[in-house]
From TrEMBL:
GO terms for biological process: SCF-dependent proteasomal ubiquitin-dependent protein catabolic process. It comes from the Eukaryota. SUPFAM superfamilies: F-box domain, RNI-like. One of its GO terms (cellular component) is SCF ubiquitin ligase complex. InterPro entries: F-box-like_dom_sf, FBXL15_LRR, Leu-rich_rpt_Cys-con_subtyp, LRR_dom_sf. This is F-box/LRR-repeat protein 15-like leucin rich repeat domain-containing protein. Residues 159-294 form the F-box/LRR-repeat protein 15-like leucin rich repeat domain. CDD domains: F-box_AtSKP2-like (cd22161). SMART domains: LRR_CC.
Length: 378
């Protein structure tokens, strides 16, 4: 038999025979001879204990797992009940048909990666996943250009336990469908909407900020319809935000950054690339927010040893910013580096910011390298 784009079960059997020996410490006679594993004699494929089978499955790639699930009914039952993670991103053709056939079998999946190089998935495949995989927590549908709002409506009803959703590049989704999804998938912690120009609107983000207050990471790169209303809704509704990418969100202003500085105390990474309405006012608000946050830190022993504040900031092409404001930010956040090899403050395209430097020891070392101290006279 041949499955999963050309892998033969004969090859699979040979592979598994070797794995049984090394995984369980059994004899080397192969299936058909007497192998003793854990005090149990194995003479046929169906005799392999479920625990051992799942251990072997964890060592092979996803294509092999799919073929293994078709070896016999015992293997099928064990794998289908025990498999919790599956990636089909290797599938270059017929991914839609593969999902339609596998989703009804692998009903215990927690993680499913359906990322594509070329669009293959259609709504009926996502609907099947939603109808069969109700425990799903992590779903990657990136670059699924063929999907429509039907997919989001199906996920809303079938997968309420989603904590991570990547729909980057799914340009056909509407903000109405995304708003609807947020009413049901309230456990979301990671949401990637990069390039979802229609779906990522202020209206949708208001709903997300209201419904999904556990969010920790939101990617909104090149969502050009997003404005201050949407970002401020996230800031007020999602205080646990740690990562926010607003790359290319050209409508946002200082008001968004000020809301983030005042409400999202755990913010670690902020992307403002090409947000040219951002001014010094935003930088000073971030720096001032950090000062207030440091005072609050002494109230918690748990947080005392935790590094606090921004660790990554991209302000490339934010040409209205001036050196004093950005330097104030650097002074407040020691984890922001401009030095070679440690760039976590990205300022490319801002020629007037070349004088800004780290507030750490490496800045002093760099200064000494350029201006060495004179040797004492003998």
């Amino acid at each position: 038999m041949i499955g999963a784009e050309g892998l033969k079960t004969d090859d699979l059997g040979l592979c598994f025979e070797h794995m049984i020996v090394f995984s369980a410490g059994g004899g080397g006679g192969g299936i058909g001879a007497a192998n003793v594993v854990g005090g149990r004699v194995i003479t046929d494929w169906k005799d392999i204990p479920m625990e051992l089978l799942l251990r072997i499955v964890s060592l092979v790639d996803d294509r092999t797992v799919i073929v293994a699930s078709g070896v016999c009914s015992g293997w099928s039952d064990a794998i289908c009940l025990g498999l919790t993670r599956l990636s089909l991103s290797w599938c270059k053709n017929n991914m839609n048909d593969l999902v339609l056939s596998l989703a009804p079998k692998f009903t215990k999946l927690l993680v499913l990666v359906l990322r594509q190089d070329k669009p293959q998935l259609e709504d009926n495949a996502v609907e099947t996943v939603a109808n069969c995989c109700h425990d799903l927590q992590d779903l990657d549908l990136s670059k699924s250009f063929k999907l429509s709002d039907r997919s989001l409506y199906a996920l809303a009803h079938g997968c309420p336990n989603l904590t991570k959703l990547n729909i980057s590049g799914c340009s056909a989704f509407s903000d109405t469908a995304l708003e609807y999804l947020s009413n049901f998938c309230r456990k979301l912690k990671v949401l990637n909407l990069c390039g979802c120009v229609k779906a990522a609107s202020d209206r949708a983000l208001k709903a997300i900020g209201y419904n999904c207050n556990q969010l920790q990471s939101v990617i909104l790169g090149w969502c050009e319809n997003v404005g201050d209303v949407g970002i401020m809704s996230l800031a007020y509704g999602c205080p646990e935000l740690r990562v926010l990418d607003l790359c290319g969100c050209v409508l946002i202003t200082d008001d968004s950054v000020i809301a983030l500085a005042n409400n999202c105390r755990h913010l670690r990474s902020l992307g403002l690339y090409y947000c040219q309405n951002i001014t010094d006012r935003a930088m000073y608000s971030l720096a001032h927010g950090q000062v207030k946050n440091k005072h609050g830190m002494w109230e918690s022993v748990k947080n005392r040893y935790e590094e606090v504040g921004l660790m990554n900031l991209n302000i490339s092409q934010c040409t209205a910013l001036t050196p004093p404001a950005v330097q104030a930010l650097c002074d407040s956040f020691p984890a922001l580096h401009t030095c070679p090899g440690r760039h976590s403050l990205i300022i490319s395209g801002c020629l007037n910011l070349t004088s800004v430097h780290c507030a750490c020891a490496c800045a002093v070392q760099a200064h000494r390298a350029v201006h060495p101290l004179p040797h004492p006279a003998h």
